[in-house]
Design brief:
Elements: H1 4-19, H2 25-36, E1 44-49, E2 55-59, H3 72-83, E3 90-97, H4 100-108, H5 110-129, E4 138-148, E5 154-167, E6 173-175, H6 184-202, E7 218-226, H7 228-238, E8 249-252, E9 256-263, E10 268-275, H8 276-284, E11 295-299, H9 306-315, H10 329-334, E12 343-344, E13 352-359
Antiparallel strand pairs: 1-2, 1-13, 3-5, 3-7, 4-5, 4-11, 5-6, 8-9, 9-10, 12-13
Helix pairs in contact: 1-2, 4-5, 5-6
Length: 367
């Protein structure tokens, strides 16, 4: 399978020569980390089969959040931590899209722009849901930032998972109406107004197109299902997704990269072929600045509302699971593990792998 690391190894040198002087540090770090991920450059461990004597090299991951190979274990740990916080209630999926007129400003001011966009979207949902005409209570909002389309074009938008109900001022749980959270047109206007006010206060130096504040914004709100499984499906789908997975890259030559994308109107897979330098540009524009959180919590899920959230779980009679979620069958089959942590040898399928020694990084830095 062709990987993003293979694309970088082929085109990164030329790309860095052309754009290295103006590249953000996060882009340089992503290129270096993805190329080194799970290679001898990062070091690792050597395992030896006690039966056939085969040696298995297990190299370290780079842990870069833009790397397509580093999020499996991270997803499992994160889901286990969040599983006990979820509420057994219906959920809604709200998507807020930034109009074309604001995209250049957001791309040039990512740290402030993205943070204010996520806050404006979530605050608008919480404020509108508190209206007695809709929910009349404080809902929980988990906001996730995405900046791409299937063809890796720049398209900043926020996905929000919203509880279908909330805690009212008198401490009671108030459910939302079936298949309705709040009117999307009113929500779009409120998000637009909040973001405009926030940008004017935080970044008065920015000159933004007036057309962005007069045209209708695109906001979608759909029921997402009920209960814990709906939440886990949402989290697995959106929280740790990157711009493109290795499985979508289908062709690589000396000049171009070919990848698959799903066309929205026809719902069919298509192939897109671009030059290697253009692929790198498209991919790197979705690498976020260091320290910028792409997942944030608001309303009932904010850290300041923990008591309200605990009260809501009691009201909904939620019993958090005492045992962690079992591993998937495919994982267990591919990596059978014994009670002592050893694994079955993939060569002979009979002996157990035993730890032999640590493998230092190939290019260790001098002290």
């Amino acid at each position: 399978m062709i990987e993003i690391a293979d694309v970088f190894r082929r085109f990164a040198g030329e790309y860095l020569s052309a754009h290295g002087a103006s590249m953000p540090p996060s882009h340089r770090r992503a290129i270096a980390d993805i190329q080194a991920c799970r290679t001898e450059a990062l070091g690792g461990r050597l395992w030896r089969c006690e039966s056939c004597g085969a040696e298995i090299f297990s190299y370290h991951s780079c842990k870069n959040r833009s790397c397509p190979k580093c999020h499996g274990p991270q997803i499992e740990r994160w889901l286990k931590m969040r599983k006990a916080e979820m509420l057994p209630c219906p959920y809604f999926h709200v998507t807020v899209t930034v109009p074309r007129e604001l995209r250049d400003a957001l791309r040039a001011n990512q740290r402030d722009g993205y943070a204010l966009l996520m806050k404006a979207a979530a605050d608008a949902i919480v404020e509108l849901a508190r209206d007695r005409r809709y929910v009349g209570a404080t809902v929980g909002v988990l906001a996730v930032l995405h900046t791409w389309t299937q063809q890796l074009l720049y398209h900043p938008h926020v996905h929000c998972l919203v509880t279908g109900g909330g805690v009212s001022d008198d401490g009671c749980w108030r459910p939302a109406r079936k298949a309705f959270l709040a009117p999307v047109k009113a929500l779009a206007r409120l998000v637009r107004g909040k973001l405009r006010a926030a940008l004017a206060k935080k970044r008065p130096d920015l000159v933004l197109p007036k057309a962005a504040w007069s045209k209708p914004w695109v906001v979608h709100c759909t029921p997402w299902g009920a209960g814990e499984q709906a939440v886990l499906d949402y989290l697995a789908r959106y929280v740790f997704r990157i711009a493109i997975a290795n499985s979508r890259i289908v062709g690589l030559d000396d000049q171009t990269v070919t990848f698959r994308y799903k066309q929205r109107k026809s719902n069919r897979w298509r192939a897109c072929r671009v030059e290697g330098q253009e692929f790198m540009r498209r991919f790197l524009q979705h690498v976020l600045p260091k320290g910028l959180h792409k997942v944030r919590y608001f309303g009932l899920w904010h850290s300041s509302k923990r008591e309200c959230a605990a009260r809501a779980r009691l009201l909904l009679q939620l019993d958090p699971p005492s045992n962690p979620r079992p591993a998937k069958a495919s994982e267990e089959a591919s990596k059978p593990e014994q009670a002592d942590g050893s694994r079955v040898c993939p060569c002979c399928r009979a002996g157990l792998l035993r730890f032999a020694r640590e493998l230092p990084p190939k290019w260790a830095q001098a002290p």
